[in-house]
């Protein structure tokens, strides 16, 4: 496979990373090199092989539906770039 | 004092021949002198360190000291630590002062250990050379023109240069073992699930595992006793009874079966590294070990499988950096999407962006089965290879990296070339096994070379036993760079 400039722009858009016109060729070249490496997988027969997500194949645990955390709202909100009245501020989303 | 092991320092503190405050001051002074050259630390805070040291001395005076109370350590800058900047080597988190402690940090605090500072690393732990840090590259103390390895390069250099007796680290594809090898120190990556990931900044959650770098295997065992343990806040933490990882250190190696995977001694391995590994095998044989030929036929596939799974999980994990709740936000933007895109373009470095884009693509509509599921199937084949190999041996032995440390700047423009150098470490993460790097020799140019030991699941005590017995008979781990 070979990614085109349009493909790279689409991937960057999906990843929410701004890419300039100047960068796009170099990034495309590097991504194509990486996918060249990755494509080696496709030659392997993996019929009837169960995908492996966790080395121990453990089941996720359940916990009681109980309050376990303290209220530390002020400490956490102090880290945000912009807040007001206990809310995180972002540019207007809905007109 | 600066050259003493963790074990020796703990002994001196217990005997009262040195105080924790004296120790902390000695290390901080040495860091102040050498860090401008080595760039091993991102954050230092003398007042905080000395306050912790005085508290440890007070605890000892009160008669409630544990085995490691008052011993200094350094934390890799991806373990959240309350009140300390936790940058993960990224501009994105340059302004992030953690409001809570990682489980590993809690455990070290409970033991009474004293934080000297926070170590440099490849951004978000992505890299094998430590050149991907927003805070600049870390220098190898054996040769400042060489890379120290990555991503835990700062932790490895801090131990090698005797800026700390021990440091925490993490390993997703070799990030403990490879820098330990390149810096001539001992590193341990435990079985996946042994050390809690709670409070570790996430890279690839199904592969990330916390561990330690130190001078000796014995020190790694003492640290693992502190760091390991079930933690319900990490959904993949393994629920097992606590064990003493130092219990088997003294066990003789007579009868030990060492598996040599023939794929690790094939084309691509430098003759220098091969020579060092063969000498280590000879030493183990001298101690009564026998050698078994084993095969890990899918080794070469670990590279494509890893470079799908790790970027896919990174793409998902790093979507949280959006400039809204914490971290960097671009100064100027037109709307919400523009804010995300500029924030992430400014906050992430080139390698992180590349991996996010690879991950985004392989997870995108129509490609999930062809890439992520395919990679997970190959991951199963790789894990099965190890299960088969461990039927005929107790530990597996091989190189950590194909060569000794390469030159700074020599692979910057070729990510694929850099990825290929991870060939001997990736499969251990994919399988979730414990692995170590143990100093075993030097290249002709004076750069250290490590030996990799791979254990069966939860076989840390046996692995540490083999490494310790090797270190009793050799002195590679006591050699140190001229600084």
From TrEMBL, chain A:
One of its GO terms (biological process) is glutaminyl-tRNAGln biosynthesis via transamidation. InterPro entries: Asp/Glu-ADT_sf_sub_c, GatC. GO terms for molecular function: asparaginyl-tRNA synthase (glutamine-hydrolyzing) activity; ATP binding; glutaminyl-tRNA synthase (glutamine-hydrolyzing) activity; transferase activity. The keyword Transmembrane helix does not apply. It is an enzyme of class 6 (ligase). The keyword Transcription regulation does not apply. Keywords: ATP-binding, Ligase, Nucleotide-binding, Protein biosynthesis, Transferase. Transmembrane segments: none annotated. It catalyses: L-glutamyl-tRNA(Gln) + L-glutamine + ATP + H2O = L-glutaminyl-tRNA(Gln) + L-glutamate + ADP + phosphate + H(+); L-aspartyl-tRNA(Asn) + L-glutamine + ATP + H2O = L-asparaginyl-tRNA(Asn) + L-glutamate + ADP + phosphate + 2 H(+). Its EC number is 6.3.5.-. Heterotrimer of A, B and C subunits. PANTHER family: GLUTAMYL-TRNA(GLN) AMIDOTRANSFERASE SUBUNIT C, MITOCHONDRIAL (PTHR15004:SF0). Belongs to the GatC family. Allows the formation of correctly charged Asn-tRNA(Asn) or Gln-tRNA(Gln) through the transamidation of misacylated Asp-tRNA(Asn) or Glu-tRNA(Gln) in organisms which lack either or both of asparaginyl-tRNA or glutaminyl-tRNA synthetases. The reaction takes place in the presence of glutamine and ATP through an activated phospho-Asp-tRNA(Asn) or phospho-Glu-tRNA(Gln). This is Aspartyl/glutamyl-tRNA(Asn/Gln) amidotransferase subunit C. The lineage of its organism: Bacteria, Pseudomonadati, Pseudomonadota, Betaproteobacteria, Neisseriales.
Automatic annotation (TrEMBL), chain B:
Its EC number is 6.3.5.7. It comes from Paludibacterium purpuratum. Residues 22-464 form the Amidase domain. GO terms for molecular function: ATP binding; glutaminyl-tRNA synthase (glutamine-hydrolyzing) activity; transferase activity. Heterotrimer of A, B and C subunits. It catalyses: L-glutamyl-tRNA(Gln) + L-glutamine + ATP + H2O = L-glutaminyl-tRNA(Gln) + L-glutamate + ADP + phosphate + H(+). SUPFAM superfamilies: Amidase signature (AS) enzymes (SSF75304). Allows the formation of correctly charged Gln-tRNA(Gln) through the transamidation of misacylated Glu-tRNA(Gln) in organisms which lack glutaminyl-tRNA synthetase. The reaction takes place in the presence of glutamine and ATP through an activated gamma-phospho-Glu-tRNA(Gln). This is Glutamyl-tRNA(Gln) amidotransferase subunit A. Keywords: ATP-binding, Ligase, Nucleotide-binding, Protein biosynthesis, Transferase.
